[in-house]
Write a structure and sequence with these properties.
The chain has about 425 residues and is an alpha/beta fold. The chain has 8 helices and 28 strands. Mean pLDDT is about 90; it is low at about 325-330.
Length: about 425
């Protein structure tokens, strides 16, 4: 196969579409589930596609547009197929009902998405009764199986799925007693706080956490308490809330076991691969995009990023089959490091490889706290090359993007991005 794409969610489908549009004939999407679309299939609310399609779609509608286009272009699909191995030479091993297959790929795009952090990772003590779910699991139960997990609900964590499920459970007749967030700021988009909590009178308790659960066969309630600056609960203010359901919306983890198995360098801040501006990892010909790279707020940005990964994978495949690929690699431009400074938690890409006549690059980043007001500066070799317009507020829950024009001489110190905190 010329291009192997691991994952059939929005990132994988978008990458496959762009690769076919760029002329790659043998494009395979390998998906472990029996259906394409990934998490979008259970996201029945509106808000998808505003940037790509210029209209509001539900998650399944957005996914179906990608699927229809991929089918139209002749993308190959391997569904119900699990990738069990990947080598640095881009040999993909996968298992399906037909057996085990090994295939050499010209390039590989990692688009496996992410998974939710579950109860074990949070370490909540107490009973292990039925009624504790991740927010995504509850979303699948309600939206795809028609099962309401409970009637009296507490939500721990204010990530976007948790906020959306607060509204969804309310619409299905449950009583959401409150959303408790250990951080002093929400982990979700401001629009979801307004539309999913404020519009339905659901309280958001910042700097609070669930300290323990009560109930053996079934959850009977939880204890909650405020936390201090070190996130230590103040048990003197602990109080009991009677409930039958606890939903956890406490973070997402990029799926990168395959990447780690072949020595892809990982970012401790994002849990995803360290990539250059081509979205290529330290393993030549292995690219990453979407939530497997870093968690996105909007699926439109996932699609844009996947397009970029596909275009670079196509260029890599073309170079491998051309005379140009045999030139001395010592003549290749050296990567310029991109480093986050104060106020910025992480930035993607982690390096920039000067790309011929191209001088414009896009940096995606998140702040490490709530800053209001604030501006962001990008420096090249210590000199400011871009300063954003002062923003009313910058929050960690919303990914920011900034385009820069890189000076030709940049190389010694590299590129840094910092918040100018006001």
């Amino acid at each position: 196969m010329q291009l192997a794409i691991i994952g059939g969610g929005p990132a994988g489908l978008s990458a496959a579409i762009r690769a076919r549009e760029k002329g790659i004939k043998d494009v395979w999407v390998i998906e472990r589930n029996a259906t394409l679309g990934g998490i979008l299939n259970q996201c029945i609310h509106h808000g998808f596609g505003i940037h790509i399609y210029k209209e509001e779609l539900t998650g399944p509608e957005y996914a179906q547009r990608l699927i229809d286009r991929a089918v139209e272009l002749g993308v190959h699909f391997a569904l119900g197929t699990m990738v069990t191995g990947l080598s640095r030479e881009r040999i993909v091993t996968y298992v399906s009902p037909k057996g085990t297959v090994q295939a050499q790929a010209g390039a590989v795009i990692l688009a496996m998405g992410c998974r939710e952090r579950a109860r074990g990772a949070v370490g909540i003590p107490g009973g292990r009764g039925v009624g504790v779910y991740t927010a995504g699991t509850a979303q699948a139960l309600v939206n795809m199986k028609g099962i309401l997990p409970g009637k009296r609900v507490v939500i721990l964590g204010s990530g976007d799925i948790g906020l959306i499920m607060a509204r969804r459970m309310t619409l299905e007749g449950a009583k959401v007693l409150g959303v408790y967030e250990i951080m002093p700021h929400s982990g979700g988009l401001k629009r979801n706080i307004a539309q999913c909590l404020n519009d339905y009178g659901i309280p958001l308790h910042l700097s609070h956490t669930v300290t323990r659960t009560v109930g053996c066969a079934r959850l009977e309630g939880v204890y909650v308490a405020p936390v201090d600056e070190t996130f230590t609960p103040d048990l003197t203010q602990e109080r009991f809330i009677e409930c039958d359901t606890l939903l956890l919306s406490v973070g997402l983890i990029p799926e990168n076991e395959l990447a780690r198995s072949i020595g892809v360098l990982m970012s401790p801040a994002t849990g995803g691969a360290l990539v250059n501006n081509r979205l290529e990892t330290n393993i030549p010909g292995v690219f990453a995009c979407g939530n497997a790279l870093h968690v996105h707020d909007l699926v439109d940005y996932v699609t844009m990023e996947a397009y970029e990964a596909a275009e670079n994978a196509v260029a890599f495949i073309a170079a491998q089959t051309s005379i140009v690929s045999s030139t001395d690699l010592s003549d290749a431009p050296q990567p310029i490091p991109v480093t986050p400074l104060r106020g910025v938690r992480y930035v993607v890409p982690a390096s920039i490889i000067p790309d011929g006549s191209r001088t414009t690059y896009t940096l995606s980043f998140r702040s490490d706290g709530v800053y209001s007001p604030a501006t962001v500066e990008v420096l090249a070799d210590g000199k400011v090359i871009r300063s954003t317009v002062q923003r009313r507020v910058i929050v960690p829950s919303e990914m920011e993007r900034v385009r820069i024009v890189l000076p030709e001489a940049t190389k010694e110190i590299g590129v840094t991005i910092r918040g100018v905190l006001c």
